[in-house]
């Protein structure tokens, strides 16, 4: 049986030459998610890769057929280097929170890819930890990490929430009847009878620019009222998503809209369709508005749009077990962070993480002061 061969990409210009290959493989992969979209990956590299970071993207081939993509990069920390997925590892105030990333693997190749990746990474490793954040515990990468049996390496799993995935029903009435919470069902039914609400769906670049500014304003205002700093106060974050939403509009994957009462926006929604799933990413909500339960109204509207576009699933993405998302559907799909560290560097790595956590806390405190 022939071994898989690896094409290793270490420079961004080289990665950019693989756009068509990535997109074709991604579109045919059942576990492809929003945060594995080519534009999410490539734009993150353009906006967030530093001069000391090094791409380590692996394209695996069986003869000349692509069978897997492993989207790694090596991040240089103050003392040590760590292997990560592209889309993670930014400073906390600017992070885009890439969720549910994974290896992209063709059917029937998991075992061969696991073996090849292990051999390629650990025979001559130039890193002292592997940090894989916000992934599903049944994902390829999680299964790969958990089956490793390596001397001097220790794996830690930290469960951080669950995935809330809701099926899109055939009509709005059935959608509402399947909501778990009686209160949320009542709110959704009330919205379905509301006559004074209009929905403006973004379908032009001009509308995108206007609605994106509304999203920024509503989102930041809502968090400021809670005494916290909104994600859209950071210019790296704003610029990344301006470029990403533009790309998603061009590919007809962007779902962005406002709910309005008397021409006043009371909610702005930002989501992306990928692989027959509508991912809810961000929103801005004016809670003291004339529309009761505006958050519920916004999600019901988004599910209506998903239905019109023949999307099968609505992904609330990661949430705590007692999140408001639990009112729509229970979840048993765990989301976790994984850290694989090499002995005896584990204590130094933990110290580095603690130092960065304290630094990020100080930055947040300065912004909210």
From TrEMBL:
Q: Pfam families, from UniProt?
A: Acetyltransf_6 (PF13480)
The domain of life is Bacteria
Q: What is its EC number?
A: 2.3.1.-
Q: Which leading EC class covers this enzyme?
A: transferase
Please provide, alphabetically and separated by semicolons, the GO molecular function terms listed in this UniProt record.
acyltransferase activity
Residues in BioF2-like acetyltransferase domain copies: 181-325
Has keyword Acyltransferase? yes
UniProtKB keywords: Acyltransferase, Transferase
Please indicate if the UniProt record lists Acyltransferase as a keyword: yes
Q: What is this protein identified as?
A: GNAT family N-acetyltransferase
Classification of source organism: Bacteria, Pseudomonadati, Pseudomonadota, Gammaproteobacteria, Alteromonadales
């Amino acid at each position: 049986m022939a071994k898989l061969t690896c094409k290793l990409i270490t420079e961004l210009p080289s990665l950019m030459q693989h756009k068509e290959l990535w997109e074709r493989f991604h579109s045919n992969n059942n576990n492809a998610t929003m945060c594995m979209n080519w534009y999410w990956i490539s734009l993150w590299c353009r906006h967030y890769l530093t001069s000391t970071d090094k791409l380590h993207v692996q394209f695996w081939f069986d003869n000349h057929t692509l069978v897997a993509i492993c989207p790694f990069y090596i991040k240089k920390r103050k003392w040590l280097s760590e292997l990560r997925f592209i889309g993670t590892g930014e400073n906390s105030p600017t992070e885009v929170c890439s969720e549910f990333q994974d290896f992209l693997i063709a059917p029937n190749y998991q075992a061969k890819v696991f073996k090849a990746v292990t051999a390629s990474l650990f025979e001559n490793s130039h890193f002292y930890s592997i940090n894989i954040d916000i992934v599903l515990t049944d994902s390829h990468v999680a299964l790969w990490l958990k089956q490793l049996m390596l001397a001097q390496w220790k794996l830690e799993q930290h469960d951080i929430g669950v995935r809330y995935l809701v099926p899109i029903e055939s009509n709005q009435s059935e959608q509402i009847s399947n909501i778990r919470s009686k209160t949320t069902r009542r709110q959704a039914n009330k919205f379905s009878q509301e006559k004074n609400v209009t929905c403006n769906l973004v379908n032009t670049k001009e509308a995108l620019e206007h609605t994106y500014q509304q999203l920024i304003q509503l989102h930041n205002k809502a968090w400021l009222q809670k005494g916290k700093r909104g994600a859209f106060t950071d210019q790296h974050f704003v610029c990344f998503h301006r470029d990403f939403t533009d790309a998603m509009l061009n590919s007809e994957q962007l779902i962005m809209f406002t709910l309005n009462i008397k021409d006043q926006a009371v909610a702005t929604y930002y989501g992306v369709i990928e692989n027959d799933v509508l991912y809810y990413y961000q929103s801005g909500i004016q809670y003291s508005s004339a529309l009761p339960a505006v958050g519920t109204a916004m999600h019901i509207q988004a599910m209506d749009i998903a239905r019109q576009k023949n999307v099968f699933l609505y992904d609330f993405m990661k949430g705590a077990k007692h999140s408001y998302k639990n009112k729509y559907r229970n979840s048993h799909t765990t989301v976790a962070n994984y850290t694989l560290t090499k002995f005896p560097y584990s204590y130094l790595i933990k110290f580095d993480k603690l130092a960065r956590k304290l630094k990020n806390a100080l930055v947040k405190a300065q912004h909210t002061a």
